[in-house]
Amino acid sequence: MKKPNKLIKISxxxxxxxxxxxxxxxxxxxxxxxxxxxxxxxEAWKNKFIVSFATIPNHKASxxxxxxxxxxxxxxxxxxxxxxxxxxxxIDKNKLVDILQHGYSHIDKENxxxxxxxxxxKQLVTLQDKxxxxxxxxxxxxxxxxxxEDKISKGKQILEDAFKKSITVLVxxxxxxxxxxxxxxxxxxxxxxxxxxxxxxxxxxxxxxKYNNLIMVLxxxxxxxxxxxxxxxxxxIAKNTLxxxxxRHYWNKYTxxxxxxxxxxxxxQIIKEKESIGGYFIMLNHxxxxxxxxxxxxxxxxxxxxxxxxxxxxxxxxxxWKCSISExxxxxxxxxxxxxxxxxxxxTIDSPNKIKGLCLEHPPGYELSISEKEVxxxxxxxSIFNIDxxxxxxxxxx
Length: 398
Description:
Layout: E1 9-10, E2 19-28, H1 34-46, E3 51-55, E4 58-60, E5 77-79, H2 84-93, E6 97-101, E7 116-118, E8 123-125, H3 145-163, E9 169-170, H4 179-187, E10 191-193, H5 198-201, H6 211-223, H7 230-234, E11 242-243, E12 247-248, H8 257-277, E13 280-286, H9 301-317, E14 320-322, H10 325-336, E15 339-343, E16 346-351, E17 355-361, E18 367-369, E19 376-379, E20 382-387, E21 390-397
Parallel strand pairs: 2-3, 2-13, 2-14, 3-6, 9-10, 10-11, 12-13
Antiparallel strand pairs: 1-17, 4-5, 7-8, 15-16, 16-21, 17-20, 18-21, 19-20
């Protein structure tokens, strides 16, 4: 039987939550109308879900569906700074919204593989020719380091000037990842969300790898077979946090009732899995997909119906930390820097940062106490408290 101190560990998530749940919506830009967002997210915001908008700083009016028909194919550039009503709307939402950086102009050349419109069914249809991957249409594809860093730093500055906040997470168009993107993101103090897979992990510069963490992940996954939460652990193998998109809530999954039910059940299955292993779930949306070619009201009612159904399930049936992607990235980084040691009946926690809502998991029946601090026991095996920067001593006993 394991000793009690062998069973004490820092929970993955704050406030005793079992897993993290985030919503990412790509392509917010100069062209976005606030009323489009209200129609999609009013119910989500009532239930305190946070939407992280991956925002295009200087959107190019190319021949793609995330550009309104009246601007499409003009090849002009449109800074989000010029959409004052949208900026005011986002700022007014305060903690219910989050801003991520989505490239600079999104595309520099024509996207020959964009979905096209079916005017009879009012649906988007994907072209079948997949000989060239979508990511090749990213503005960053095959771009050298100087141009890559220039786009990222300029785009970040535009967004920070517009929304008066620090931008800490980068989402590249088509989730394209390169060695130059890793280097430029790190230089600009940004985490990366999306596009993290076996191939992209090989592009992490050697100077940005955390070798101790990488060795631990490889050992747990390939040798001990003890790692069921490899996606979480991969977040910490580089000096900038890496986050993987979990579920893509795309229009082509929700055009018929039978397909909608299938994909809804698939999403719920993934959510249950993430909760059971203490992982995170990032749900990806594109607001413009809800509106057939930028019509005034939502036209893909199934897409919207099942989006709200997924959120209803999360709200009623799971213990989720509803967080922004910026918060998610920050928390993973903060937690990674916490050191814990246990001797007899004392737990010593060292942290370079002040942290609210830290949760310790421990054997049922044990009590934790900290001098002059409140400890909240949220379950028989979880206790929550705040810690200051430096060393915190926690006493535990039956």
